[in-house]
């Protein structure tokens, strides 16, 4: 199906999925010191009359699995400011519309001491005056290993506080990045980039101008063949009453 959006044509039959598949295999990416996800059939009853929710076991007409995972540590996820506040805020209530004009940029983080950091200057240069509703950041080098990387205790690259402030001041409401966090892995709980993006001044007493309707999506993967530029973003979540949800961001080319 082809739709007209503003002055562009969008072919919805050609989605560009930038999410990472969640699986219970060793290929699943992991962050934040947890183990891989668990996907296993429900088992009910006693040993003599056991019911197993798996058709191939011959004891059920349906496959009926439990899934145990962490949205922040096991793959592509979208979070609201409830991720860092004392008061509860739900991603399900914060994200209420799902299509946005987005700009995809590629950035090679700069080495600063022992860290690799995405700076304000890099973001500003890549956007080149554009003010989209969403920004999608692909870090370089863009190895396929991102699809299965084990991030815990590796000090991944992160977003400088000033870069996050610039994104907020540009009016961008949705930030997507192919890292496990916009912040440094071990930062003593400062969460400077998160706070700057959501304009949160005090996590215990939320300021009136905090950005309740803005989101951060982490652990995406953008293939090399998807070129930098403007796209239509469809950002879909599961309806969890939680600070974050696994998500499936999809880009569509603008013609």
UniProtKB/TrEMBL annotation:
InterPro entries: KFase/CYL, KFase_sf
Pfam families the record matches: Cyclase (PF04199)
Protein name: Cyclase family protein
Native organism: Flavobacterium ichthyis
């Amino acid at each position: 199906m082809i739709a007209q959006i503003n002055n562009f044509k969008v072919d919805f039959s050609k989605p560009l999925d930038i999410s990472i598949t969640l699986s219970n295999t060793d290929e699943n990416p992991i962050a934040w010191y947890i183990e891989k996800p668990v996907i296993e059939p429900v088992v009910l009853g006693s040993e003599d009359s056991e019911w197993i929710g798996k058709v191939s076991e011959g004891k059920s007409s349906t496959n009926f699995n439990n899934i145990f995972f962490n949205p922040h540590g096991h793959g592509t996820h979208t979070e609201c400011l409830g991720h860092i506040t004392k008061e509860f805020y739900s991603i399900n209530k914060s994200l209420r519309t799902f299509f946005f004009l987005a700009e995809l940029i590629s950035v090679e983080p700069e080495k600063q001491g022992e860290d690799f950091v995405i700076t304000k200057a890099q973001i500003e240069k890549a956007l080149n005056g554009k003010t989209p509703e969403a920004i999608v950041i692909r870090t370089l080098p863009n190895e396929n290993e991102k699809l299965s990387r084990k991030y815990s205790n590796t000090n991944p690259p992160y977003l400088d506080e000033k870069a996050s402030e610039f994104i907020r001041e540009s009016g961008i409401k949705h930030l997507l990045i192919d890292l496990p966090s916009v912040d440094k892995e071990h930062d003593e709980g400062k969460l400077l980039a998160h706070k700057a993006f959501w304009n949160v001044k005090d996590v215990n007493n939320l300021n009136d101008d905090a950005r309740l309707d803005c989101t951060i999506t982490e652990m995406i993967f953008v293939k090399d063949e998807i070129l930098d530029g403007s796209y239509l973003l469809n950002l879909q979540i599961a309806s969890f009453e939680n600070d974050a949800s696994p998500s499936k961001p999809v880009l569509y080319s603008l013609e």
